[in-house]
Model the fold of this input.
Amino acid sequence: MTNRPTLRHVVFFSAKDKADIPRIVEGLELLAGIPHARAFEVRQNTQHDTLSSEVDVIVYAEFDDAAALAAYKADPLYEASIKAVRPLRDMRLAADF
Done:
């Protein structure tokens, strides 16, 4: 059996203005400096069909448990990322599993 993370955290974002996608990615990349994630990625969506066209940027992170995710969200870099990205984004949809 492999040592798999207990919790995966996925967040989808859409930009108010597509020209701001690089700034959204940059703001979300601040989150990489938070030490509580086992794995962390920010990527621009490359899928461009009708159903996925509203998703511009995806954050994917893995955590050992809910406590690690809570610590991640309590880090000051998390708030800095929110301040950078919130004015630029339209939709934000998160899922944990």
Observations:
- Strands lie at 7-15, 39-44, 57-63, 89-96.
- The CA atoms of residues 36 and 68 lie 6 Å apart.
- The helical segments are 21-29, 66-74, 76-85.
